[in-house]
Amino acid sequence: MQPLEYSRASESWAGSIFNIVDQSGQELVSIPIEFATQARCNTIGFALSLVAFCFREDGFLRDESGQQLPVKDPMPQGTAIFVRQDGTTQPCTPAKGPRFKYKHRPPEENSESGTMSNSSRSSGLQNDFRVSLIARDFCCLLSGLHYSNCTASHILPLSRPEYYSEVLGGNVRYLFKPEHGLLLRSDLHHSFDRGEWAFHPDGENLVVHVFKNETAAREHHGLILTPDRFRGEARTHPHRDLLKFHYQQCAIQRFRGYSSGFD
Known about the structure:
The protein has helices spanning 9-12, 33-38, 44-54, 124-137, 161-168, 186-193, 240-256; strands at 17-22, 27-32, 59-62, 78-84, 150-154, 181-185, 197-202, 205-210, 224-225. The chain is an alpha+beta fold. The protein folds into 2 domains: 9-95, Ubiquitin-like (UB roll); 124-252, no CATH class. The longest helix is centred in the C-terminal third of the chain and has 17 residues, at 240-256. The relative contact order is 0.18. InterPro entries: HNH_nuc. Residues 140-200 form the HNH nuclease domain. It comes from Tilletiaria anomala (strain ATCC 24038 / CBS 436.72 / UBC 951). Residues 86-124 are annotated as: Disordered.
């Protein structure tokens, strides 16, 4: 299958760009510095985490003069070189993705390719799910809109229980736990599904990262949700590993910019 291409964050955000290539010259990821600055993640360490999401090999970054870049340093404008830990100069191997709604094909740009979880559905399980999210979140996690106008959405596609098993371990059959979901305004729910924004786990907090400036979520870029934003026990808070999986798929889509691994 021919890879699909996506609009990158670097096409949406104005200003300086930090590009990473491997020693073969293959471009790995492209990161807008203004995006990273406003999202409080402007470090070489964050850039390396994106490479780890998008490619399979471990390594470090050096500048064009050959100096290794410290992980706590800010990203400079220009290009850095990813040096593979295994010592080879072969092109890095793209990770499979982005994986959203469909198992055997990547999502098309701007498609409704997400969770298939809609609070207007009448199933008893979905209704209970919605009640549990209202009890925990009360209003939209980003906009603060009253819960009556919000969607009870799953973090990962409800149609892909194997993603939950992959991330959480074991055979996950019941997908309607509050830790599997988010209470969001309807348009924010759809843009989350399209990979236009995500929650980035940062310590105990969750930080909103908006990759596409044209989305309604743009005004919330850099918003920090602390643990006390959620009601109830910590075990019912949005599951960080599920959020990390979603963020990885967004990183593949918005920083690498093309699909891979679909036969």
